[in-house]
Amino acid sequence: MMEWLAMGGHGVYVWSAYALSAAALVGVGVWPWLALRRARRRIAAALAPNQPVASGDGKRPEPGQGGVA
Amino acid sequence: MNAFATQFRRDFAISMRHGAEAMNPIAFFALAAFLLGLGLGRSTSRLDEAAGGALWVLALFANVLAVEGLFGRDREDGSLEQLLLHAKPLFAALLGKVTAHWMVSGLPIAVLSPLVALLVDVPPSGMFVLALTLLLGTPTLALVGAIGAALVAGTGRGGLLVALLVMPLYVPTLLFGSGAAMTALGGGDPSAELLWLAALMALSITLAPFGIGAALRVGQEY
Amino acid sequence: MGIATEWFRRTFHRMGSPRWFFAGSRGWMLGLYLVGGALIAIGSAWGLGFAPTDRLQGNSYRILYVHVPAAHLAEAVYVAIAIAGAVHLVWRMKMADLAIAAGAPVGMTLTAAALATGYIWGIPTWGTGWVWDARTTSMLVLLFLYFGLIALRQAVPRAERAALAVSVLAIVGVVNIPIIKYSVDWFTTLHQPASIRIGERPSIDPSMLWPLAVNALGYYLFLVGVVIAALRAKIIEREAKADWVRTWVQGR
User: By percentage, how much of chain B surpasses pLDDT 90?
Assistant: First the structure.
């Protein structure tokens, strides 16, 4: 086991490369879920009665836009 | 060809009227080379072969800074909109515009580069190859840079963004340009690199105006 | 033939509808996450534990199994963004615009991962992490191209308009990528000290190739899933004012 982890002296490189790749994949995989949840909460807050409308991030589209300029 | 000549004459006349402004790119280039020589400890021998590459990078910066404002004034006074609506063909008019810009940015840098090269002690054999590479390379820089300037024209953001957008696209020009200069300084024959620079120039003359036009049209919708 | 084209046309038009896409994509997304994730796990375990050791590089070659798929996809995502950009410029298709916004951060992360793993791999193999090799240099240029896409999107006010500008930039970039690669390749073979020139591997044993194939497929599927998930988030952000989005939010 230890021998396998050591990778013949190259363990540091191999494992750090794999850890980094895993971190990148997990990060990139989780990010859209967080973004979706954030958007959902913002809309829910805006819809809730007697609540001040949450301001957007400045990149919100104009109201009622149809996508085609 | 008529659209080219009209646009070229107009833009060139405007930059001549703002005489001092037309000096800015070459002044920046000279100043930056001066600082480079100074920063490296005023000792001439440190640069030798690297000088060609260093001057090329400075020329590249000078071009990015110069091209940034290419469409700003025209956009403000509405003549850019007129150009997009009426120029026939737009391709030729844009080419005329960029050519006029190059006459006051790239061309002076290329022509005066041997003088500037004295500051960093480039030997005479390298000077003229350097000038030649800049002569062949700066049109490409201006054309590609104009795409970035056109994209950014409507955003109110300035030079740093244009630099970020176009400098990765400058990589081939820089490699062949500085490569030719370094080859010549090392005593080799730089003609292969020079031919590549010419090929890149031909390619950008044929393709870049379409990119500039598309970017400007998009910019009109901001 | 007629049925196939009709199906394609219908699907294409539906794909253009954010609402239809949002409703129909959840299952696909979850499936791609699961299958892609599983394949990556299998491929990585295979590559780390069962593939034979390389005679020349020892165990450090195992980084290949995460490096190559990331590098490959980093480029593929850029090309996909440019294609979406062309679609958006021609048809003003809203989903294409959202796809560009969803794809750029994913591609940038992959490029960074490819560069980082390449650097780590370089230390034991070439004795130095960074070399001005053609492939590493091109990959770094690609990272800067991604920076440009993201910076331009941030700079243009109004998301719909930003997408048009980013489309143009992506197309310009994709036209330039082959030229950049060629020039870097040409330059590095001429001006590179021979000691650190990296030759192509003459051949690779199939037992070493299988984990790579599994991982590459896994990366593809997983990242398509990620892009779908990112698209879903962008749809909700962008369509916040639509009735169906409000109904969906309230139904949660």
Answer: 40
Q: Is residue C119 part of a domain?
A: yes
Chain A CB contacts of C117 under 8 Å are 17, 20-21
Interface of C with B in 81-140 (CB under 8 A): 89
Task: Tell me how many domains chain C contains.
Answer: 1
Helices (H) and strands (E) in chain B, counts: 11, 0
CATH of the domain at C34: 1.20.120
pLDDT in tens, C146-189: 999 999 988 888 777 788 899 999 999 999 999 988 888 888 77
Q: How confident is the model at residue B44 (pLDDT cuts 50, 70, 90)?
A: low
- Tell me the one-letter amino acid at B39: G
- Whether the CB-CB separation of C248 and C28 falls below 8 Å is answered with no
Stated pTM of the model: 0.87
Rounded CA gap, B132 and B142, in Å? Answer: 16
Two structure tokens written together for C192 = 């590179």
Q: Tell me, rounded to whole angstroms, the distance of Cα C10 from its chain centroid.
A: 27
- Which pLDDT value is given to residue A20? 93
Whether residue C108 is contained in a domain is answered as yes
DSSP tag of A55: P
Contacts (Cβ under 8 Å, ≥6 apart) of B158: B68, B152
CB contact under 8 A, C168 and B151: yes
The interface pTM score, or ipTM, of the predicted complex is 0.88
- CA C62/CA C215 separation, integer angstroms: 12
CB B73 within 8 A of CB B154: no
In a domain, C11, yes or no: no
- Bridge partners, C54 (sequence order): C58
